[in-house]
Amino acid sequence: MNVMVKPLGETHSGSPLPIEIPAKFNLPPGQNLTAIVIVHGSAGPDSRGTFHREYLVENGFAVLELDMWSPRAVTSLARRPRSTLDTLPDVWGAWHFLANNPNINKDKIVIMGFSWGGVNAMATAFGKKSKNPPIELSNAKFAAHIAFYPVCDVWVKNGIASRSVDLSTPTGAPVQIHNGTRDDYDTAPNICESLKTAHPLMPIELLMYEDATHGFDSANAQAVQFYDPVAKNGKGGQVKVIGDEQARSRAKASVLDFLRRSLPRN
């Protein structure tokens, strides 16, 4: 069903915040459900969200897939919010929406994000909230974080995320990172490997997909290339996206396994 989510808190850059965020909400039968918030990438809601939403719902998970771009009239990379942190009010509003559903266990709400959304998944794993969060978010915490190609080089010691996120205080919730060995959004794809030693207090599980690019879980098998000014740790660069059916299939199995291990259902 289509629902509206109220963002909570303020944007970090001071950019305008929509009053409501449209979302697709799938609620399977049952009680004490685990729920997944899906946060899209710079392209907006696309085949990636559909792919993950469908198998998650089939396996009994509630899913809330956000559309953060339509209320902001984002139609190109140039029209994105100033910072990835500016969509944290949307993310935490989604958490609050799910936490207040009587069929969902508020201690089993997970965030999954792709690229821009993957950055949100990582930021919340370090406990980052929206600016001036309301009291309803005082003890809010995601139970697990699934980050697809979350721009790993911004999370190292001198990465641009370190300027706005305290990387020393992870929440302790488990994190699963998916990245391809040909992902050219980062300065180097193997930078993701360094996160496990850079953040020893964060329980990180990393999956690298051989020959996969940024956006490998897209349904589009035709190569798409574009320039993104925030690629390469903020220096800008060309980014290639190619859907990879084999990597998609492996990612699906790995996500379901991670959820079952991290959040066993009663």
In the sheet with the most strands, the strands line up as 1-2-4-3-5-6-7-8
Q: Domains counted in the coordinates: how many?
A: 1
Shape: globular
Q: Could you state the CATH homologous superfamily?
A: Alpha/Beta hydrolase fold, catalytic domain
Mean pLDDT across all residues, rounded?
A: 94
What ranges have pLDDT less than 50 throughout 5 or more consecutive residues?
none
Largest sheet: 8 strands, mixed
**How many extended strands?**
10
Listing every helix as H and every strand as E from the N terminus to the C terminus, the arrangement reads EEEHEHEHEEHEEHEH
Relative helix content: 10-25%
Describe the structure.
The chain has helices at residues 47-58, 88-99, 116-125, 191-198, 231-234, 245-262, and strands at residues 2-5, 21-26, 33-39, 62-66, 104-114, 144-148, 175-180, 204-209, 224-228, 237-241. The protein is α/β, with parallel strands linked by helices. It has one domain: Alpha/Beta hydrolase fold, catalytic domain (Rossmann fold, 3-Layer(aba) Sandwich), CATH 3.40.50.1820. The protein has an 8-stranded mixed beta sheet with strand order 1-2-4-3-5-6-7-8, sandwiched between helices. Strands 9-10 form a two-stranded antiparallel ribbon. The chain is globular and about 45 Å long. The two termini are 26 Å apart. The model has no long low-confidence stretch (mean pLDDT 94).
